[in-house]
Amino acid sequence: MVLQKEIKKEPNAKISVQVTVDKSSVNEAKESIIQDFEKSVKIPGFRKGKVPRNMVLARFSKNIKDKTISRVMEGSLRQILQEDKYQPVSEPVVTEMGELAKDEDFSFKAVFDVMPEVKLGEYKGIESEKYVYRVTAKKVDEELNALRERFATLLSVDKKADIGDYLVLDHEEITGTGKRINKKSEQTVLLDSETDSFAKQLVGLGEGDEKEINFDIRYDEKGEEKTMTLPLHVSVKDVKKKELPVLDDDFAKDISDVDSVEELKNNIKEQLEKDARLRSEERTREELVKKVIEKTDFELPETMVNNETDRILSEIAPMHRMDLKKMQENEASYLEYKKKFCSKIKGSSKEYIFQGEKCSGSQKTNRTKQKY
């Protein structure tokens, strides 16, 4: 397919490819597309697949031309990337394109970002601290309590609701005219905070009680946080309290393939220790890689930088109640954010690129970074 190719490395991990595709491949691609059209087009007066070729060519010449160019470009670029082992990280941008003519070669030029070549700096003998995470009895107990929470049950109680209890209730919205609409039945609500105005309005209610309360809904309007109060009528069906299972051998047998609480504790501890070792190794490796990266320089593809910028913006936008799409569409603002997060973006992008590289180093000291 590819008759000639000229590949040039451009700044910022880009390559430009000047390609000439032989005329036989072009003719073959065009013929295949014409046949596809002949099989699929529908024209009044003709059965599907029986439209004369000259009519297909007359009516769909531009579509055939565009599809031929697209297929020839995709096929030739795929061939070049496989032969020269480039890893593209962006879609190709066509910067030059010749005419598609019968029985003639076809030429075009495309530019795209690729994974950069990483040449390691001096990395032998680099020292890194070893991070050690330890498993304590407290952490094992926390995991056991988490299991009890997971298998807890809600039991009905004959009392008025308090913070920490659950209410099973029906609620309806109250319109400006006092009409009740949008009924929701059998909703279970946890009264989980004394500072929660919604929960405070429900404290003291019992089975069969009814009350009108106000529910505040927060929303964003043009970057400004606003609150809308929704009047509700609630009808309490039940008051429930969470009951945790007793931590005994029967509980251990019910939730796991063990015979006692002690055996369950040992299993939990073993898993936590395994996780801690993996976490320690991963953290130590990350620190070692960072030190190697500091001694290694390579260009970053613009596409990768933009993707990392988008990722960071997608994390901070909800916290600041900002519209991510508008942030991306505002070029000046987008460039400002890219500049602001430049070091973070480059650091994380370089770490991503560096994943495939291998290096060796020594770990100088042991350090307990965190106990649990």
Automatic annotation (TrEMBL):
Residues 4-147 form the Trigger factor ribosome-binding bacterial domain. Keywords: Chaperone, Isomerase, Rotamase. Residues 260-327 form the Trigger factor C-terminal domain. This is peptidylprolyl isomerase. It catalyses: [protein]-peptidylproline (omega=180) = [protein]-peptidylproline (omega=0). Belongs to the FKBP-type PPIase family. Tig subfamily. GO terms for molecular function: peptidyl-prolyl cis-trans isomerase activity; protein folding chaperone; ribosome binding. PANTHER family: TRIGGER FACTOR CHAPERONE AND PEPTIDYL-PROLYL CIS/TRANS ISOMERASE (PTHR30560), TRIGGER FACTOR-LIKE PROTEIN TIG, CHLOROPLASTIC (PTHR30560:SF3). The lineage of its organism: unclassified sequences, metagenomes, ecological metagenomes. One of its GO terms (biological process) is protein transport. InterPro entries: PPIase_dom_sf (IPR046357), Trig_fac (IPR005215), Trigger_fac_C (IPR008880), Trigger_fac_C_sf (IPR037041), Trigger_fac_ribosome-bd_bac (IPR008881), Trigger_fac_ribosome-bd_sf (IPR036611), Trigger_fact/SurA_dom_sf (IPR027304). Its EC number is 5.2.1.8. Pfam families: Trigger_C, Trigger_N.
